Amino acid sequence: MTSPKVLIIGGGIGGLCLAQGLRRAGVSAAVYERDTAPASRAQGYRISLKDTGAKALHACLPPHLFALAVATSIRPATRMVFMDPQLRPKFAKPIPPIEPGLADLGVNRLTLREILLTGIEETVHFGKTFHRYEELADGRVRAHFADGSSADGTLLVGADGTHSPVRGQLVPDAVIEDLGWAVYGRTPLTDDLLAATPAELIDTFNRVIAADGTAISIATCRTRGPNPRPLTDIPGYLSWTMSAAGPPPGGTSPHELHELATATVADWAPGIRRILAEADVPATFLLTITSALPVAPWQAPAVTLLGDAIHTMSPGRGDGANIALRDARVLAGLLALETSPTTAKAEYERQMLHYGFAAVTASREQPFGPSRSR
Ligand SMILES: Cc1cc2nc3c(=O)[nH]c(=O)nc-3n(C[C@H](O)[C@H](O)[C@H](O)COP(=O)(O)OP(=O)(O)OC[C@H]3O[C@@H](n4cnc5c(N)ncnc54)[C@H](O)[C@@H]3O)c2cc1C
Q: Ligand 1 center to residue 77 CA distance, Å?
């Protein structure tokens, strides 16, 4: 068996999309993911893909899988509404209808991961925690894993997320700043809840803002029908995000975070209180909003970074996954075109460091709030 050419560390959105793009281009690759299975972590929230992300997905996936992503996408929002805690609109406008596709695609994270895994299952190794890499004398690179195993390749791509151990070794001085925090939760969308919830909160891109800046956004996440087998079905839910100024909450258990959110809205409109009261409490989590500072180009001919591993950004503008997918598209395209992986990698880094950190800068201006979903 020949060893894979590209070693991808991390089987998240960017790493799997790269593996798909390389498969389409005929470049061999293997993915090493620390999770033990695709659904082993809570993957329970929506990702909004704009044209950047949707076009990258279209370029990297075989046509039938892109069509599956569109068919299983979340229904788009029809209005943008900003309100006060009593749901008095402060600003509202309709969102022109757009067919889900290349310009717009709201997807459930687990569904996207399952689609991205389809057809490349044998090249994705779960339960492999990257430990460190070693640059070999012949120009290749060796990845070492926590279980004592290793793998050799011509290029190693760290697609291992915000706390990337590959970045830790490659650019140890890189700085990731904390910008604040947000509490995320989800509430099953039952028929009763749907009937009782004010129209301003359903199928809208919304933000409910109190005078002290505390804000909640509620995204309606429902597909047009059940997911086809073998994809995991994801019944409709409301995904809510609460942000406030000041230090993060003391308690971080799902129960404590849910209590905090419930107390925050104690005198808000009943429609909001009910959504929080009916939440799936164990699914509540605290997100530290992080943002990378620009890094200088590095000198390592066989090691590069992709996605949050290099340019993690606030989710406020909903760009992180879009840019990770763009990275995958650009790198797969260059590796397919260039005869030398070193040249392809250098051109990828030149482009990616430019547009990636431009997106980080833009996202710092809007660190909190809902990811835009139309
Ligand atoms: C609540 C929330 C909502 C968001 N909404 C949006 C949105 O609407 N639109 C948008 O564009 N972006 C959104 N984002 C951002 C988006 O999720 C990320 O930018 C995107 O997932 C980055 O992809 P990635 O592949 O770089 O990293 P990830 O998807 O985080 O994948 C990294 C992978 O590396 C693995 N890994 C980590 N360490 C190791 C190791 N040592 N060995 C092996 N594997 C390892 C992890 O298990 C993980 O699977 C959101 C983020 C959050 C938290």
A: 24
Point out the least confidently predicted range of 27-31, 47-51, 353-357.
47-51
| Distance between Cα 17 and ligand 1 center (Å) | 12
Q: Domains plus CATH for the chain?
A: 6-77+100-176+291-364 (3.50.50.60), 178-289 (3.30.9.30)
Nearest CA to ligand 1 atom 17: 321
- The 3 state secondary structure assigned to the chain is CCCCCEEEECCCHHHHHHHHHHHHHCCCEEEEECCCCCCCCCCCCEEEECHHHHHHHHHHCCHHHHHHHHHCCECCCCEEEEECCCCCEEEEEECCCCCCCCCCEEEEHHHHHHHHHCCCHHHEEECCCEEEEEECCCCCEEEEECCCCEEEECEEEECCCCCCHHHHHHCCCCCEEEEEEEEEEEEECCHHHHHHCCHHHCCEEEEEECCCCCEEEEEEECECCCCCCCCCCCCCEEEEEEECCCCCCCCCCHHHHHHHHHHHCCCCCHHHHHHHHCCCHHHCEEEEEEEECCCCCCCCCCEEECCHHHHCCCHHHCCHHHHHHHHHHHHHHHHHHCCCHHHHHHHHHHHHHHHHHHHHHHHHCCCCCCCCCC
The yes-or-no verdict on residue 373 having pLDDT over 50 is no
Q: Which residues' Cβ are closer than 6 Å to ligand 1?
A: 9-15, 32-35, 45, 47-48, 53, 129-130, 159-161, 165, 184, 287, 307-309, 315, 318-322, 324, 371
Counting from 1 in the atom list of ligand 1, the atom nearest the Cα of 308 is 26
Whether the pTM exceeds 0.85: the reply is yes
**4 has a pLDDT exceeding 70:** no
